[in-house]
Amino acid sequence: MDKPEAKSARWRRQAGAALRRLRDRIEAFRSYVAARDPVWLAVRRPGRPEIIAAAITVVLVGGFLLFLALFDWNWVRGPIGRAASASTGREVALKGDLDVRLFSWTPSATVRNLSISGPDWASQRNTADIERLDVAVRLRRLFLGQVEVSSLTMTRPQAHLIVDEQGRRSWDLKPNRPDDGRGARLPVIQRLVIHEGRLTLDEQRRGMTLDAVVSAREARSPDDDESGFVLDGKGTMNGEPLTLRVTGGPFINIRRDRPYAFTADLAGAGSRLRAAGAITRPFDLGRFNARLDLQGRDLADLYLLTGITTPNTPPYRLSGGLTRDGARFRFADFSGRVGSSDLSGTVEVNKVGGRRRVDAELASRTLDIDDLAAVLGARPRVTAGGTVATSGAPGKLLPDAPLRTERLRTMDGSVSYRAASVKANAFDVRQVRLGADLKEGILKLDPVSFAFNRGELHGTARIDATKDMPYSAIDFRLSGYPLESIIPARNGAPTVTGRALGRAKLEGPGASIHDLAARSKGSISLVVPQGRMRSAFAELLGINVGAGLRKLLSGDQSESPIRCAVADFKVADGVATARTLVIDTDVVLAQGSGTIDLGAETLNLKLDGETKKPRLLRVWAPITITGPLASPALGVDAAAVATQGGVVGALTALVSPIAALLGFVDPGLADDADCGNLIANAR
């Protein structure tokens, strides 16, 4: 026998010996019990005491079971109601008959006229009233510590839900417990039937009311399309109609490992939400996934339906996948249109530290700048040719839509947005990039970036919305913006060329951009380090009528260098006062003064030009720039012209007509401006 076979035989002998020893020990224990254990002996050969004890036990158990079978459960309605009241903090009343059936693998109970009162602040109406409630549970599951409802039937149940101005909910039995936002988790209900149910909602903070009928039943036939769960209601939202319809499949043979399909359609406040999906685990309302379609006139209206703060927008239509995992909602990979722009991205809503938090990553392939203006506070106006954004006031440039500070205080979050391209627009914007961070009522915008065909505008803003009147601070810098995009060409040729640099640093209170500008303080500056100007217009800066008109009428296209141009304003109480206003060319040095009223959006500026070269026909009068920012008017100071005319008339009368020409002659003694110092001070 080789070694492996020897080892195997030895192992079998050892195992057999161990089994024999175990069998011998078991036999010895059985013999001991049969011969000496008193309990065993009493069972096999019971005496008189054992027989009496067994009889008493049988009688007691039988009597108890008979008592339960004949017991009138109405006797304990009061104690049950008082115990439930103490547990919930509400008055729970069982006003009708109570019938309990215990002797079954599915014990059941019937309760008639059950009511649950509202909290102290809403005690005028019960939270729930049920005419009849039939419920049965699985006994075997109870032995395992699980509650599984085999059937639940409610006849004419009514639920009255109230949310007051402070956000208290009448159905919250533990109002002091923090709301984690995870949703309700109900026991499994294998069969649910609701007859003539009704649900009312009075949400006082949002001005929402709803009156809905609720039903749930099994299919009466294979073609019965009205079976299953249905909630169908109508109401109002801020005085406008509101409708809600929720449907689901029949509640029969429901299992936790099988998704439960549902649809929901909510319309009101100018918005409509449609969802079709499934609850991942039935009766765990904190987990589901669905396809969500949104459309409406303004995304800001969604706050009334969802409690999520969104900016004002033109009409929108968006579709994407919505998932919920506890307190976390995710609207992912959505796409659609907002106004005339496309929009896609992902939005996530969660609860962090007891506060709602919204984080969004958004992008547009092509942006219509009017749609972005609406987001920044301009008011969208839908026309036949598309959406147009206006400030809201005729002839005004700055948006005047108010910021809803109370909404900003309800949540935290962040937003990033990028537009890869921008439709043709008056400012020649080509790309846009925005970032925002909101925390405890403080909104920080960084960056706010606009890339033009040439040049860019980059800045930051901070809005303190912790009080009803927000206080804002902005700091924007303009670099490399072409002057020809500001001042239009004439006869196909640019009037001026060059690159502009600028900065606006303002702060102040205001509910809108317009209000902020009207109350702001700070500074505004615009600098052109160098450039070129049509010679005809350069001459006219100094009212050099002879040279300017001759070149203008002859179509002269020659240019004069711009040594520098500086406009530096100090802003106080919404009025910008010129500290420096200089345009220095090789032929004229123009210096100015005046104000810009940011609240009224009007200009009142004067430019007084001095020639650097002798000129024969020179009108000694400043150029005026007045009127609204949207359409300023250029003119000449009439009073100065009249004064010069009076001087010329006096020379004609007192000396001679030739001497009168001296009134129009300028020897051209102006010096060049100190451009380096002016630019340094303006920046």
UniProtKB/TrEMBL annotation:
* InterPro entries referenced in this protein's UniProt entry, alphabetically: AsmA (IPR007844), AsmA-related (IPR052894)
Please verify whether the record's keywords include S-adenosyl-L-methionine.
no
Give every AsmA domain span.
54-174, 233-579
Residue ranges crossing the lipid bilayer per the database entry:
51-71
Alphabetically sorted, this entry's keywords are:
Membrane, Transmembrane, Transmembrane helix
What is this protein's record name?
AsmA family protein
Organism of provenance: Brevundimonas guildfordensis
